[in-house]
Structures are given as structure tokens and as C-alpha cells.
Write a structure and sequence with these properties.
Structural class: alpha/beta
Radius of gyration: 17 Å
Largest sheet: 6 strands, parallel
Strand order of the largest sheet: 1-2-3-4-5-6
Low-confidence stretches: none
Length: 204
């Protein structure tokens, strides 16, 4: 069911995760066979049951294995391969791995500005995101603490990223993408209450 999408949704990126390189490569081929435009590799999820299997941000404990996963997938599919990471497992040391991904041929990187150990506590380190952007040639997407349209614009301005990835904020306000576009074009920021957002969803 997670692989289903409509043509109106394109371009479509489908994310996969796992701890076994060979099985990840097969999963990427399945994603490609179902018509996705991009396959994204999740090396950012901090959830305990995911990392305990060596998946998600658990991949950041073994750079060689992480690079092997990306390389196998890159060789198996023709569609672009992207990777979502955190800034490290316990420290901000992921940049050397990202440079290896760039050499392998990934199309872009999305980086969350926290380590796995930080999970969702503290503040997302946008300065580290800016450093990653400055040292990679491929497009970089920033992630973490983008809760409003104004936050997204501020991330663009302060980090120089090519794009902003939004996760939890979209669950609270699915209209945030429209609001970002409006603000970027010079419009006013919309600050809806949850009740107002609920009413707008019901009216759709």
C-alpha cells in the first residue's frame, strides 16, 4: 500500500530502510519497478526498534557498510538515488560519509541537524547543515525545526540549502507547503490554529 501513488503526485520519491545491503538493493529495484521517480535511503530514523536492526540512523555506526548499501543500490537501479541522514550517531561526524556518497553518485542528500543520540531533543544544528552544503557539490536538503513557513525561508537564507525537507510539521499542518510557496513569493505568512486547519481539511 505504501507504494501506491497517482500520476498527479509526480515526481514521486519512495523511501526504503533496512540493515542488509543485498535486501536493500532488491527493495530499491521493487521501488523502481513500481514506477517511482526516485528511491530514497533512510539513514536518519532514530527509533530504537529500527536502529537495533542496523537500519535508519543505525547505519551511521558503520560508514563502510553504509557506503556499501548506497553503492549496491546505485548500481542496481536507473532512477536517481537519494539519502536522508542525521549529522552523526553520537557526534557530528557524517560529512566524510556524505562525500563518499557523492563519489558513488547519489543525486542529493537530506540532512537532519541532530545526531541519533539527540533524537528530537534540543535544536537542529543548522550551522552543520550549512557546512555540509558548502562542502558538497550535489544538492543538499535541510531538515529539522522547520515548523512554519517562516522557518523554511529562514533555513534557506541561513544555510544556503537547495531544498527543505519537512516531516512532523506536515502532519500538524498539511498546508505548510502552500504557505511556504506563498511566503517565498512575497505573500503573508498564514498562522492557522489547529482548529482552523481541521476545518480546512474537513472542507476539502
Amino acid at each position: 500500500e505504501y507504494l501506491e501513488f497517482t500520476e498527479e503526485e509526480r515526481p514521486v520519491s519512495i523511501q526504503i530502510f533496512g540493515g542488509d545491503p543485498a535486501r536493500m538493493a532488491v527493495a530499491a529495484q521493487v521501488v523502481e519497478s513500481r514506477g517511482a521517480d526516485i528511491v530514497d535511503i533512510n539513514m536518519g530514523c532514530p527509533v530504537k526498534k529500527i536502529v537495533n536492526s542496523g537500519a535508519g540512523s543505525g547505519m551511521l555506526k558503520d560508514f563502510d557498510k553504509a557506503a556499501r548499501v548506497v553503492d549496491m543500490i546505485r548500481r542496481r537501479v536507473k532512477i536517481p538515488v537519494t539519502v536522508k541522514v542525521r549529522k552523526g550517531w553520537e557526534s557530528d561526524n557524517v560529512l566524510p560519509l556524505l562525500k563518499r556518497f557523492e563519489e558513488i553518485g547519489v543525486a542529493s542528500i537530506a540532512i537532519h541537524g541532530r545526531t541519533r543520540g539527540e533524537a528530537y531533543t534540543g535544536a537542529s544544528d543548522w550551522a552543520y547543515i550549512a557546512q555540509v552544503k558548502s562542502e558538497l557539490k550535489i544538492p543538499v536538503f535541510g531538515n529539522g525545526d522547520v515548523k512554519t513557513a517562516a522557518d523554511a525561508i529562514r533555513m534557506f537564507e541561513t544555510t544556503g540549502v537547495d531544498g527543505v525537507m519537512i516531516g512532523r510539521a506536515a502532519l500538524h499542518n498539511p498546508f505548510i507547503f502552500r504557505d511556504i510557496n506563498a511566503l517565498a513569493r512575497g505573500g503573508a505568512q498564514t498562522m492557522d490554529t489547529q482548529a482552523e486547519i481541521g476545518r480546512r481539511i474537513d472542507a476539502m
